[in-house]
Amino acid sequence: MCVVLDRNESIMKSVRIVFPNVPYYACIWHLWKNVCGNFKRSRNTLSDLFYSMAKAYRKTDFDKLMANVDKVNHRVKKHLEDAGYEKWSRVHSTVNRGRMMTSNIAECINGCLVEARQLSILEFLEEVRILFGSWHCKSREIASYTKDTLGRRFEEVLIINASKSSKMELVPSSEFIFSVYEAGRRYIVCLERKVCSCGRFQLDEIPCAHAIDVLKEKNVKDMHPYCTDYYKPDALAKTNEIPMVPMPDKEDWSAPEDVVAETVYPPRYR
């Protein structure tokens, strides 16, 4: 488990208090916007390099990309170092961050609650509960009747990886270890440990193209056991199994009159 945020100091402080043992990481989109604001002349040149670094699966690939960044603007490299590679780079993350690289879901929630921000705190929280409750219920319903072995998004990833595995050559080293050759490069796959030297198998926790090529060679038809259980419908359903119970009507609250009578609005400014 981890928390992805926009590096806002107040949010980071709250995360440390509420989730003291949970690491937090930077949203790569917000970090890049910060880089653009500080180094405007380099942003067009470095955009692709930055996102490739953030999403890199191997440290050697990351280091090569960072060397190119250094050639373009050494100050940008220093800025990213100060931010902490482990906070925004997938391959340097202290926990398996997987595919969660941005805080887009939080931005989506903010967009849905724009009008509700004008309400009092209690009314705003009720709007949040209604929104989350409806999403919660819908997600639980979808997960309950899905017939796929994996969630839809992860099934698509598996299909894409399978399509990439058709033009590879492999050489077995043992029952579980294979060398896979793709475009002149050699990758080592270990099915027993569920790892590949490309980094994708162990970080995405779903067979990469090289692993799928090995599984095909071994006549394995069902590749789902090599995927993490978190991608399977049962796990997805469990994330939504606890319903969000509505609050009772305000007239039924058991609270001091001065508390009920007071109306508190959110701050006017961020």
UniProtKB/TrEMBL annotation:
<dbReference type="GO" id="GO:0008270">
    <property type="term" value="F:zinc ion binding"/>
</dbReference>
<keyword id="KW-0862">Zinc</keyword>
<protein>
    <recommendedName>
        <fullName>SWIM-type domain-containing protein</fullName>
    </recommendedName>
</protein>
<dbReference type="Pfam" id="PF04434">
    <property type="entry name" value="SWIM"/>
</dbReference>
<keyword id="KW-0479">Metal-binding</keyword>
<keyword id="KW-0863">Zinc-finger</keyword>
<feature type="domain" description="SWIM-type">
    <location>
        <begin position="187"/>
        <end position="219"/>
    </location>
</feature>
<dbReference type="InterPro" id="IPR007527">
    <property type="entry name" value="Znf_SWIM"/>
</dbReference>
<dbReference type="InterPro" id="IPR006564">
    <property type="entry name" value="Znf_PMZ"/>
</dbReference>
